[in-house]
Amino acid sequence: MTEKTVTAAIVTYNRLPLLKESLAAVLAQNNYLSHVIVVDNLSTDGTKEYLDGLDDARIVVHHADENLGGAGGFNQAVRLFGEQLNDDFIWLMDDDTIPEPDTLSHLVEFTLEHPEVGFVNSQVRWGRVNGNPSWMNVTAPRPFTWQRYLMNSKEPAVEVVNATFVSVMFSREMVAMVGLPQKEYFIWGDDMEYTNRIADIKRGYMVMNSIAVHKSKENTKPGDIVAETDDSRLWRYNYEYRNRVLTARRISKKEMFKVISVAILRDWRKTLLRKNVTSRGKKLNIIMRGLWRGLFFNPAIEYVLGLKIAKTQSLRDSEMDLLD
Fold it and tell me: How far is Cα 97 from Cα 323, in angstroms, rounded to an integer?
């Protein structure tokens, strides 16, 4: 069998020291790596000059004309993978992701042993290899599957609902089926929505021995507006709540109502009633405005030029057929 090849993709914005560390770790992978796409979101810290000075045929650099946000950057990276390269898989990460030398090998080898897999992602640790889990990158196991992992600690992977774009890999075939990440999300939630699309066709798995380090500033829970104390970050939550609603809508109306209810009964209520909440009024407005915008937010899904094939039946539909 011909060895499979992988394109890694890193999206970066004004974090040159971390980008250098991430790129070095990616280029040091011990197997399967063929290309590395770096999408620079109009950085102003010398990133452009650094990337333009690299002399490695594996590296493909794209300088954006504007800051596309993380979502737009990953949209462009997957588009470049589909249109300009011929590798079998694409492996996505932020510029503060530092994979171990064998991180990619474990992802590929699990996928080759389990061809029914739609995507695979790594265990993500915060700050260092033996650090705590990176909470923003911990995704839920699929219901009614977790019991077998309690019974057998030697399971090579855990079936998960979705994944973040911090060391996640999927095939060219999946790109052809589900299209591109939703660039209109701009920031937050685009990875969940996209891996939901994949997992509706083929399931996703966290590969236990594939380890990546996430060097984010803080090890916070995702989208926790109540605990947020940095006023300069609040604009992000406008996208968080809007994007949550669309992601849920694309699953079902029931899921949409659940997401809206949780946002109001938990986040809005806690923001209103809990003591010592900073920027209380602004946060309350952001939650309600974001939820409202999400009801009408419905950008079209894009596909790679010349790379589109019909999806197989939805696994949700298959499961419903079994219940009928």
Answer: 42
Total residues found in the chain within this entry: 324
Amino acid at 53: G
- Give the model's pLDDT for residue 323: 37
Round to whole Å and give the CA distance between 29 and 6. 11
d(CA 311, CA 318): 13
Q: Which residue has the tokens 């409202």?
A: 292
Residue 324 resides in a domain: no
Q: Could you tell me the pTM of the whole model?
A: 0.92
205-228 pLDDT, tens digit each: 999 999 999 998 887 777 899 999
Do 25 and 100 fall into the same domain?
yes
Residue 168: what residue type?
V
Amino acid, res. 291? L
Nearest by Cα to 170 from 87, 247, 95, 73? 87
Q: DSSP code of 142?
A: P
CA distance 158 to 141: 7
CA separation, residue 277 to residues 48, 227, 270 (Å): 40, 7, 9
| Inside any domain, residue 322 | no
Task: Give Dmax (Cα) for the chain.
Answer: 62
Residues 211 and 279 in one domain: no
